[in-house]
Amino acid sequence: MLTLCEVKQHLRIESDAYDEDDLIQNLIDAGYNFAENYTNQVVAQSVKTLSLDTFPEIIVLPEFPVISVDSIAYKDAGGVDQTFSDYYLNNKTLVATIEPIDVFPETDGTRDNILITYTCGFSEIPKTIDQAVLLIVGSLYEQRENHVLGVQINAVPVSAEYLLTPYRVYAT
Fold first, then answer.
1. Cβ proximity of 64 and 27 under 8 Å
2. Selected residue with higher pLDDT from 2 and 93
3. pTM, rounded to two decimals
4. Domains in the chain, please, with CATH?
């Protein structure tokens, strides 16, 4: 993930000028948010949770890419807290799934009984995504308003979209 210092260098702002650091950090966050929404992928590594009422035959994780499953916690049929570790994570395709080696255990059937914690995002953010974020941040920094009299402004630089397009995942 880009640092504040790297972005300030891109914007040609002195690294010891602190008066706009909060604004620039917000623009960095907005740039990565746009990249995630445009590509339909989690870009920056983050920990997510998924809660389920019961175990299905195969668990489909809603984010991509998935790096690892950190834990699967549940209450067994007797209401006792348990962890499940006898599974296979298939994260080599566009849809990450968790499949039991044998079968998933029985649960007590209460709502949100199963809590799956997993890490998703790129292990290392591709440089082209970082470059797209730099272009987005630069555009947002320079054009702080949507309208400038007599000038057409694109919401996002077209070149940023071009850089992000190879990473775009369409509905599966």
1. no
2. 2
3. 0.81
4. 4-41+125-167 (1.10.3230), 46-120 (no CATH)
